[in-house]
Amino acid sequence: MIKQSILKKPILKKSGNQKEKTDYNNQSFVKYIELPEPLLGNNTADVERLKSVLKKDIGTDTLFFPTNLATDFPLKLRSWCHKVKVVLFRDSRGWRVVDILAPDKDKPVLGIAADLGTTRIVLRLINLENLAVCGELGFDNPQASIAPDVLARIHHARTSKGISELQKLVIDAFNRNINLLCTNFSNNSINLEAQTVPPKPIQTVPSQPIQTVALQPVQTVSPKPVDAISSQSVHLLTVAGNSAMTHLFLGIDPSFLIREPYIPAVNAPEPLGAAELGITINKRGMIYLFPNIGSYFGGDLISGILFAQLHKKDAPCIMVDVGTNAEVVVGYRDWLIACAGAAGPALEGGISDMGMTAKPGVIDRVKIDPVTGVVEIHTIEEKPAIGICGSGMIDLAAQLFLSGMLDIRGKFVPEQCGHRYFEKEGVGCFCLVYGSGQNIESSSGLSSDSDIVLTQVEMNSLTSSKAAMYSILQVIIEKTAGLQFNDLEKFYVAGTFGSFINPESAISIGMLPDIPLEKFEVLGNSSLEGAAKLLMEPDSFEEIELIRQGITYIELNVNQEFMNIFSGAKFYPHTDKSRFPSVRIHEQ
Amino acid sequence: MIKQSILKKPILKKSGNQKEKTDYNNQSFVKYIELPEPLLGNNTADVERLKSVLKKDIGTDTLFFPTNLATDFPLKLRSWCHKVKVVLFRDSRGWRVVDILAPDKDKPVLGIAADLGTTRIVLRLINLENLAVCGELGFDNPQASIAPDVLARIHHARTSKGISELQKLVIDAFNRNINLLCTNFSNNSINLEAQTVPPKPIQTVPSQPIQTVALQPVQTVSPKPVDAISSQSVHLLTVAGNSAMTHLFLGIDPSFLIREPYIPAVNAPEPLGAAELGITINKRGMIYLFPNIGSYFGGDLISGILFAQLHKKDAPCIMVDVGTNAEVVVGYRDWLIACAGAAGPALEGGISDMGMTAKPGVIDRVKIDPVTGVVEIHTIEEKPAIGICGSGMIDLAAQLFLSGMLDIRGKFVPEQCGHRYFEKEGVGCFCLVYGSGQNIESSSGLSSDSDIVLTQVEMNSLTSSKAAMYSILQVIIEKTAGLQFNDLEKFYVAGTFGSFINPESAISIGMLPDIPLEKFEVLGNSSLEGAAKLLMEPDSFEEIELIRQGITYIELNVNQEFMNIFSGAKFYPHTDKSRFPSVRIHEQ
């Protein structure tokens, strides 16, 4: 088995973008307001008196106050002695009042940030007043029961009632899990001692049964137990997802996302009422969907850019989200260029479609001794091996290539592979783990019931994927931005899948560019982090609009240059070896 | 009987503010838009492509597009070959898209303007594309079944379910009459030849059973019959009413309107969805309520100012709405000062609370020969006399005073009144019309079944009312604006009641100031006209906001100066006779 020190070291530095609580902008979506009492000399109406104070507090000229909030406002205002707690939100035209509440400091006003993934959805509950994280919860996107991937879901959406069926699945799942999140928080709030916690990102394990992690209590002002908290205390929901998931969440026809010329129905949907979508948070609650740039560059990426603050960097940086698609954005405070590719022939299947989904027993790390040829593996939670995931595949390909078992075209070299190589129906195969009783190198706990075998076909798929990834990067950095890879100050890796990739391995096979390892930073679930940032920092609205309007989007599916570059990138590490000076193949 | 020439001449000139159709601003709330087709090189989303063209067309930076309009937009847009008809509206933050329709020129997009009176409601149906008036309809405010006046309704609103009960009554009545208006228009459109009619105000007879008047067909582009038109073709509804009626229409607690310091819940309610209020026009339709300035200066007045264009005059003008309250605004392009009085002791009962509501048989004109003492009357529709209305009362008081039958304190002079004077339970009475068989002067058709008698108590009430009216005018013109009455270029009389007043009589009793008669202009139902103007000229939105924010509002109920002036104004025509040089009492 590989030494723990190698396998457990943090591969990539944690991003330093997470602010401490004290850094947060004084602005918040919840305000305590004390109104001047009306006088004969100042007979301004109740609503306008409130608006006047709020406008000054926020620093805005315009403020939308929904008329239906006025119905019982006069009596409430007086019974609350002209003090109110106001929940605010934003849309494309500025601020709006979402709700007016009693000036009760003990009852929290909550918001939920959501990463709406094609496969996995993660919710984070946030106290909008003290910005404490109150809980987090991940669950599988239930639309997968109808269609596993984006393309299939869009095809299903074209059937009669297809859109409403898909929308209902995801909305119902949101409602169930929002309730669960609130119930868990409520139970914990009552049981736990009050304490303040600064918001921090919480790593979730993908594709596991619904579970809450790292539940943290809200700061309570008084020592008395907090009242039971329900989803009615949730007033805001921010959702970051790719363009297709965003369309389906809103019940919007996604058909034209995947037909040339790849046109979304809407780029920047206005926030809408929870009731309009059937989301059972507070009936006056508002829901915000992050905007997209194009069919293949969605709100999850915009959210990620917001979190990474790419648009404020002093020197060019790149952010790559390796998910179902490869989505890339490069730039800094002066410009941002984005591209994404999915439906094109080179990216058929997607980059993350290598190996199986990460779960206990899945091989995530591989090491091959170039001298002895001994293969060492590591599995998630060190359970008996059941298969290999994407990051494990990249590790394996790198180790095979560096030890001479894979040639520069990505083909197995039978004489180097030795007893692990065999052919089945004419296709070359590599046995990574032998089944019980015959597993030569396996240690206890890493045995497998049956052989785990990689075929040349799977290896070719990996080769295409890694070539596509590198080609995307080359097109955007060299051909579009006119930079060299070494000009990049930082290489941010976003998305859950990306978090597990060993950049050294990815460089070895020519998937990622050969730049110093310290430039790589993993962002974790940057989509969720951005959605949470918006709830905690209202100024993010302007930033999102700046990002959205400032990005130049390149459609890779129709880029001929991309196809030319792609051919060279299918070699290990590349036809142009000068691009990978650090990659040294072991000489036999 | 009085000569026809005297009674039928138009007392007041019609206002010249009614524009011809060709004068209307090119802007409209309905736009035909042809979108550029999406291309690989321009992959802007459908919604943003539409917004971009619309923004340019309107000349705005911001445009709200409700997310739920996007759901089926992509397919519709393509089936309509990238041509659409867009219904727009405004709110405090600018323009918004209300609906997107097929680019069908034959199906009209309609709007309804409403004058929401305490007693009477009038609706006008307008084609939002060619600005033709398609019909008009008046009906009694059904809230009168619960409580006749504003004060009583507000008291009822304080009872459990009182607000929703009052709201439901008026909303249901709107729905019934909107349907009727559309059905009538539909029937007429199919039967009548197509023709274009410029919009013009239509005088409605107050307080008659529901009836449509002066139905005019919409201009049709093709010769084929217009399809049946339902309330689903109505997309916009503008409503001008006083502050209390506006609150109740919106279901907003009006309690504090009548309690010191007289605070409305809201001054400028944002437009809201028809569905929110249960108004059964198009489900995406929007409803706009004119803003108020204070509890006693409502949207009906703002609408009137908009119609009279008082805020654009070159010299100071005054507009007086003599309705349930006396509402006055004076000013021109440089400033506007408004005041209103109702709940104060001087105005108890209101100025229009003199005599009965105008209807057939009601005496609206009176003439007394100062030499012979012969009384001549005119009744509405020349039906047998059944009572006397406010304008008749003013005429009567003027004639009594000018012929010496009323002294300067407004008391009957028995020796001048002759056989018409008698006392009943110690109260002086004047018999205006004798019942059948004893009516000395009556002509055929003007007989009455029983005596029509005016008591000193009623005359005192008139005296208080006329004194209040003059005092309000004096406070606002002389004490507040620092002008003399003769500085006024125009004296606009708004409101249905005001339309019937003979200004010469009103001057004679000291109710209106003694200025040249040609300065008086009647505006008709200026509240309805302003509401209609908004539907036809979107720029009116800015004007309304300018008016609202530009008005200085004086609360008369608490003005001590008013109470001092009021005492002098209770004399006929005034303690200061120099104020009424034209009033000459007949010397016996």
List strands and helices in order, with pairings.
The structure is a homodimer of 588-residue chains.
Chain A: H1 4-8, E1 13-14, E2 30-34, H2 46-58, E3 63-64, H3 73-79, E4 83-91, E5 94-101, E6 110-116, E7 120-127, E8 133-140, H4 150-157, H5 162-191, E9 211-213, E10 234-241, H6 243-250, E11 272-273, H7 274-277, E12 286-289, H8 299-308, E13 317-322, E14 326-331, E15 336-341, E16 362-368, E17 375-379, E18 387-388, H9 390-402, H10 414-417, E19 421-424, E20 427-433, E21 452-455, H11 456-480, E22 490-494, H12 496-500, H13 503-508, E23 520-524, H14 526-536, H15 540-550, E24 551-555, H16 560-569
Helix pairs in contact in A: 4-5, 8-14, 8-15, 11-16
Q: Low-confidence spans of chain A: pLDDT under 50, at least 5 residues? A: 1-25, 193-225, 342-350, 439-445
Number of separate strands of chain A: 24
Helix content of chain A: 25-40%
Basic shape of chain A: elongated
Structural class of chain A: alpha/beta
Oligomer state of the chains in this structure: homodimer
Lateral arrangement of strands in the main beta sheet of chain A:
1-23-22-13-14-15-24
Strand % of chain A is 15-25%
Biggest interface, residues from each chain:
A-B, 54 and 54 residues
Report the end-to-end length of chain A measured between terminal Cα atoms.
23 Å
The biggest beta sheet of chain A reads: 7 strands, mixed
Radius of gyration of chain A: 26 Å
Average of the residue pLDDT scores of chain A: 84
